[in-house]
Amino acid sequence: MLSLLYSVPALICAILFVRVVGPGLLAGASALGIQLIGMLGKLIGDELDRIDETPIETKLATGSTKM
């Protein structure tokens, strides 16, 4: 779902919201908000994929719990 939000350009999203709610502040803010959610979701997902697992594995190997 986040990849769909990220892949739709802001202009297309803005046109869609103008058609749904009419021209105004709500359409523009909603379009930018949806675009921002998609972009932040992708960035956070990429950063979570880049986490180094070595400290976690070391901690679990010493017998501690996950928390």
UniProtKB/TrEMBL annotation:
It is found in: Cell envelope; Membrane. GO terms for cellular component: cell envelope; membrane. The chain crosses the membrane at residues 6-34. It is a multi-pass membrane protein. Keywords: Membrane, Transmembrane, Transmembrane helix, Transport. One of its GO terms (biological process) is transmembrane transport. SUPFAM superfamilies: MetI-like. It comes from the Bacteria. The keyword Signal does not apply. PROSITE patterns: ABC_TM1. This is ABC transmembrane type-1 domain-containing protein. It comes from Suicoccus acidiformans.
